[in-house]
Amino acid sequence: MAATLELVEVSKYYGQVLGVGPVTLSVEPGEFVSLLGPSGCGKSTTLRLIAGLERPTAGAIRIDGEVVNDLPAYRRNIGLVFQNYALFPHLSVFDNVAFGLRYRNVTGDEAHRRGGEALRLVNLEGLEDRLPRQLSGGQQQRVALARAVVINPRILLLDEPLSNLDLALRQRMQGEIKRIQREVGITTVYVTHDQTEAFALSDRIAVLFGGRLHQFAKPDELYEQPATPEVADFIGETNYLQGRVETAAGARVFVTDHGTRLVLPPDAGAAAAGPVRLAVRPHRVRVVDGTAAAGVNVFDARVERVVFAGDALRATARLSAGDTIQLTTHNLPETRTALQRGAVRVQIRPEDLQFFPPPAG
């Protein structure tokens, strides 16, 4: 049965240097959660703490409600897939998969049955007698995954398992990992620095920077409602406009340093008067009909650059007051023609705006 996992104010220090923390999050039974962030942000350290390969300096790690801080790794019943797979080169595929069963006193027919089921799960039937060096990178990754799930672990941990594969194979293996996780129904924590990979696989994503947890949310919430500028910058692209929030004729408006005035949504009370940064995603900047009557936050703009990106068009445009923004739109004939013409009208809806404090200094 899938387990629950809780981290409560968990921190890890190496001497006086913070490795990660404090981190508080809970993973539901059968949920797929990714730890996402740049190199050195504490993702792998968090995974090692859950696995029992590191001991937390503070806080509690609970599996099914049991505090496991002092429980050694081999007693946590956790499956672990490493970045380099860590297969035994002298053992066959089957013996690699069944290796963990011996230490659980599973032998004979039962070991053969469970090993065979794990190999069928990862579509490696018929390769039982091969050695790791006779397998492709994708096949080796499947062996490592089968070895992790054959022991019926309470939790499955994966530390950037696809980083050594080429792009096409990595995308195929993402689908395989998600299929296997759903089929087994196991609680899974996955470490990656690739936001596309995290979005493709995860029910929820924990984003870390500098050892700190910045946001733990569903993929769409991370993208549309980033909690911090760091999350907004790491998850996709973001336009930032510097300026001030003012009150004019009873309405709240944002006035950029160049003088562009944007009407704010009714709930913008959270944006205090004074200097702030306004953020808007490029795909939320809309190209509108140049003959339409002026609406809320509709501006004339001059297109400075257009990039063809298959089914999308990415453009850089300068508003009449001088602010530069990036926009992304579907590659439709009428939109492509408008952008290539050079003069467009764009709209930035009030509900698509978000505010952050001005950068330090």
Kindly list the characteristics that best describe this protein.
9 helices; 361 residues; 20 strands; Rossmann fold; elongated; six-stranded mixed β-sheet; alpha+beta; 2 domains
User: What structural class results from the helix and strand content?
Assistant: alpha+beta
Q: Poorly predicted ranges (pLDDT <50, ≥5 residues)?
A: none
Rg on CA atoms, Å: 25 Å
If you consult CATH, what is the topology of the largest domain? Rossmann fold
Shape: elongated
User: Alpha-carbon distance between the termini?
Assistant: 52 Å
Mean pLDDT, rounded to whole units? Answer: 90
How many distinct domains?
2
Strand/helix succession: EEEHEEEHHHEHEHEEHHEEEEEEEEHEE
Number of helices: 9
CATH superfamily of the largest domain: P-loop containing nucleotide triphosphate hydrolases
User: What is the CATH class of the largest domain?
Assistant: Alpha Beta
Strand order of the largest sheet: 6-7-8-3-9-10
The name of the CATH architecture of the largest domain is 3-Layer(aba) Sandwich
Number of strands: 20
Helix content: 25-40%
Major sheet characteristics = 6 strands, mixed
In what range is the share of β-strand residues?
Answer: 35-45%
